[in-house]
Amino acid sequence: MPITAVTQDTDALTLTVVADFAVPVRRLWDAYLDPRQIERFWGPPTYPATFTRHDGYPGGVSNYRMTGPEGEISAGYWTWVAVDEGHSFEVRDGFASEDGTPNAEMPDMRMVFEFVETALGSRLTTTTFFNTLDELEQLRAMGMEEGMREAMGQIDAVVEDLTAFAAGAGTELQLIGDTQARTSRIVRGTVDQVWKAHHDADLLRRWQLGPDGWTMPVCEVATAVGERHRTEWASDDGEQRFGFTGTVLEIEPPRRSVTTEKMWTPEDPEAAQSPETINELTLIPVEGGTLVSLLITYPDTATREMILSTGMVDGMETSYARLEDEVLA
Fold this sequence. Notes:
Layout: E1 3-9, E2 14-21, H1 25-33, H2 35-38, E3 49-54, E4 61-67, E5 73-84, E6 88-96, E7 109-117, E8 122-129, H3 133-141, H4 144-152, H5 155-159, E9 172-176, E10 180-187, H6 191-199, H7 201-207, E11 214-220, E12 228-235, E13 241-252, E14 256-264, E15 277-286, E16 289-297, H8 301-308, H9 312-327
Antiparallel strand pairs: 1-2, 2-8, 3-4, 4-5, 5-6, 6-7, 7-8, 9-10, 10-16, 11-12, 12-13, 13-14, 14-15, 15-16
Helix pairs in contact: 6-7
Family: Belongs to the AHA1 family.
Pfam families: AHSA1 (PF08327)
C-alpha cells in the first residue's frame, strides 16, 4: 500500500493524501496522464474506471465512468486548471451523469496533485479542497477516503510495468462499451512535431499511407471548426481508390481535434452510403515521445466490428512507423 499519510484539516477544508513509490517521478506522472494507465487504478478494484477523454492541459476536460460489479455506473469529470509538466497539476473534480454531463446537484472539489523526487523514488501528495465543511463530511461519509486508499493501492502494479506502455510497444486497440474503440501509440517526437505531421498536407502524404504500394494524391487538411477535410489513396497499379471526408467539430492545437469521418469510393464519391464516425485525437507528452490517442465512436457495434476487421490497426501501425522513420527521424 503506497499511502503513508492521510490528513484532514477542517479549518482549511482539505483532505491530503501522501503516497510514496519506488519509481521515478516521470514514470508516476505518465501513469496519471496516460488514459490507458490511470483507468487501471483511478477506481477501486470493484469499480474499475474507463476514461473516454483525458486532455491533460489547462482548459481541457477528462470524462470517466466507474462500473460496479452489477453494472451500475458512477461517472465523473475533471476540468484541467493548471499543469506544471512533470511536477504538478490541478483539476476541478465533480460528479457526472452517464453521458458525461456535470451533475450540478452534487458537490465538486479542487484537487492538486504534486509530484516530487525522493531518495527511494517519488512521492505524490494529493490535496482535495472542499467548498464547505458539510461537503467535506458528506463526501467522507460516502467513502471517499476508503475509495482513494483502494484505488491508490493498485498504482504499484501499473507503474512497475515498464513495457506495456513504453515507446516501441506498437499500436494498441481497446474496445470501449458497445460503439467505441481507442487506438494508442507512443510516437517518438514532440507534441508540436506530431501535431504538425497530422495537419500538414505535405507531411501527411509522406507517412499516412498504410501498407506499401499506396500514394495519397488528394490531401485537403481542415484546421478550423466547420472546415471539411478530404483525402484520397490510390494503389500504385491504379486499380484501387478510396478516401475519407468529414468536418472539424473541435480543434485545440496542438493537443486535441475532433472530426467526423466517412469513407468514399469511386462508386460513392460523396460518401452518402458510408457510416459516419466521430474521431477524437488527443496528443499527450510522455517519456519517449508523444502518446497519440484516437477515440473513435461508431454508429453501432456491427459497424465497429466491420471496420476493425479490415486491418485498420495494422495499417495505422505501419503508418506510425513510417512517420517515425521518414518524417521525424
